[in-house]
């Protein structure tokens, strides 16, 4: 495998990036094996390491891009084996960088997010989250045309022209690269060229070559943060590493696009290698636990309120049902279907509140919190709660039908159908929670805490309505019984508004007319409809919580710079 200086004489055998042929089996006209091509530099590195330390290499750590999948990682292990090295430990480059930052004193608390911009031959931008057991990759995007190779090509075009043959470009590659590095700190340098007089490269030529690359890296950073469902305000820092991290305009472009000034790590080309060597040296016993909000004691009310409400409603429904029969044979039963439906809804809400709170508590108290996020545990609790709530609602139907010796069908219909929308929304929230590593403000238990005020108002309202429909109508009590029913309608209307609307001003505006309507239509026939309306209001409450977790603002798309920009979103761009 010839070097750049030998490329003019052996152009077919020249391989500028030995790691690149991971997709093929042969390279160049020589028919060389891709594994052997990539193993050759590793073999030389191992030989030099053995010469320095005086013994064979036993611990091998290879830094790979975070975007590499299982096939490329397997290929890299085969390369190490071909080079005669022990089984290597593959370390993702951004993780190695983050570990290096920890060892050098950077403040990255557990739960914090950071961005690593690895700009080498290409660019790879990664968003990381620090967990109690180490760093996890949340999102990574790469572009092989957004690094030092693209700058070298653009600078070579400016020095020797765009029509130059590839062989001549290979011959001047070393000179162009040295000139690029020198122009970072010098206004102009002389570049020797084979078979032609030397030329002068100045900083203006470098700026022109770097500008589209810097813009692309900045855009890539913005896209990666958006892909991780974060904003710049959520980040603990943006760190630039890699052999091309010190290019002019790069940090300024990132700051302009994201609004946060990045930090160029000292000796950026060596950071990933040093971090890979340091992995495992950090004392994990002293790492603080993941900061999952612990549900307060008052959150138990989110379980108790709907639970007691459900029991009170089903108890009143059973005791006040009117049985009609002839000669002691019961042939019909008048049940307040609205109250029966609300008892099933309250049972489901109690189960959902219990599943959410218990999931958050387990996430906060787990001895191994890194194995599953709080959202993952909450999602399991929600799914279990939906199953338990549906089972309790079905049990209400079966017990009531057996109690009155009636067919179970109507009872199942009024118990299960109204809670179906709530169950669907809860299952959708469980899926969203499982896929989101970031907890909402205050934790999942706070976001999904059942609306206790609405539950209390609805329970009292339906209880008063049922009392007005079934109480003994003594002449001296008729007025008060009717007033109780109207007050119950008022309370149920207010409860619906409290469940659907959050801002106080809109609650005040909507509560009055809706409460009056509910109070006006209170009757035996309308009771079932009122119970179903409240079930729909609870489903809407869950839908708003689901919407708050799914909706994400789209990041602004900056205008592209003048000049062509190449974009090939292939993994493994960082060098």
What does this entry look like structurally?
By secondary structure, the protein is α/β, with parallel strands linked by helices. The chain has 19 helices and 13 strands. The chain has helices at 34-53, 70-82, 93-103, 148-160, 166-171, 173-183, 203-227, 250-258, 271-278, 301-320, 337-365, 374-404, 409-416, 420-435, 444-447, 452-470, 478-500, 504-520, 524-550, and strands spanning 26-27, 32-33, 61-64, 89-92, 113-119, 123-131, 134-143, 188-193, 196-202, 235-241, 263-264, 322-326, 329-334. The protein has a five-stranded mixed sheet with strand order 7-6-5-10-11, with helices on both faces. A two-stranded antiparallel ribbon has the order 1-2. A hairpin with a 2-residue loop joins strand 8 and strand 9. It starts with 25 loop residues before the first strand and ends in a 25-residue tail after the last helix. The model is unreliable at 1-5, 21-32, 282-292, 367-372 and 552-575 (pLDDT under 50).
Brief characterization of the structure:
The protein contains 19 helices and 13 strands. The chain is of the alpha/beta class.
